[in-house]
Structure formats: C-alpha cells, structure tokens
C-alpha cells in the first residue's frame, strides 16, 4: 500500500521558516517526480515545487522561487520542503504527491498525502 505522510506544518509569524517532510512508502519512487502542492481556503490546489527523485532536479512556482527549497533523502525515503521568509499568503494546506511524469499538472499526480496545515500570521 502506497503511503505519503506529511508532517511539519504549524502556525508561524511572517518572516519565519518551516520545514515540511513527506515520508514515502509502499513502492519504489526512484523514477517518480515528487511534488508539493498547496490549497488555500476558497482556492484551487496549486503547484509549489517538484523534484525528480533519481536525479534531484527541481522546479518551483514563481511565487516561492528563492524562498522555498525542495530536497530529498534517499536513505530515509523522505522528501522535504524548506520554507523561508514565509508570508501570510503562503497560508494553506500543503500536500505532497508523486507522479510518474515530470510535471506541474496536479491531475497527473497519482499518489497524495493527507495534507498539513501551514498558517502564517502577519
């Protein structure tokens, strides 16, 4: 059974940092793209960042470029989203996901975590 389990969300102030983790299990993800998405109240789920598990190549949404960093730890089968200089507009539920395709299109991600809340106060 494939599982993606997020952790690390919380309530922080603007300018603070948080690191989200996504522990993956149930299959080999070496050929997959692993992504982070977020969904704010009343808005669609949007792409944040992705990483190619095998090569480590990364891609970011413009809104987080320079502030967020996606990475992975092969030994722990876990990938991360380091979020720095957080802004109130970063407030959302953050989801990790896995896709066989290197893409930002959420419809092509077949495995999803349950989400973790990130709230940034001004």
Calculate the terminal CA-CA distance, rounded to whole Å: 40 Å
Say how many strands there are.
11
Bulk shape: globular
Percent in helix: under 10%
> Please, what is the average pLDDT?
96
How much of the residues is beta strand, in percent?
A: over 45%
The parts where pLDDT drops under 50 for at least 5 residues are none
| Gyration radius over CA | 13 Å
Q: What is the H/E string?
A: EEEEEEEEEEE
- Structural class category: mainly beta
Largest sheet: 7 strands, mixed
The total of helices stands at: 0
Description:
The chain is mainly beta and 122 residues long. The chain is built from no helices and eleven strands. Strands 2, 4, 5, 6, 9, 10 and 11 form a seven-stranded mixed beta sheet that branches. It has a four-stranded antiparallel beta sheet with strand order 1-3-8-7, with no helix packed on it. The chain is globular.
Descriptive keywords:
single chain, 122 residues, mainly beta, seven-stranded mixed beta sheet, four-stranded antiparallel beta sheet, 51% strand, globular
């Amino acid at each position: 059974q494939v599982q993606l389990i997020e952790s690390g969300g919380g309530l922080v102030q603007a300018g603070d940092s948080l690191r989200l983790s996504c522990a993956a299990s149930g299959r080999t993800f070496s050929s997959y793209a692993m992504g982070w998405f977020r969904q704010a109240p009343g808005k669609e789920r949007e792409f944040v960042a992705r990483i190619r598990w095998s090569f480590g190549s990364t891609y970011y949404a413009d809104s987080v470029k320079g502030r967020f960093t996606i990475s992975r730890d092969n030994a722990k089968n876990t990938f991360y989203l380091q979020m720095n200089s957080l802004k109130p507009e970063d407030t959302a539920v953050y989801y990790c996901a896995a896709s066989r395709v290197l893409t930002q299109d959420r419809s092509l991600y077949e495995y999803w975590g349950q989400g973790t809340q990130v709230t940034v106060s001004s």
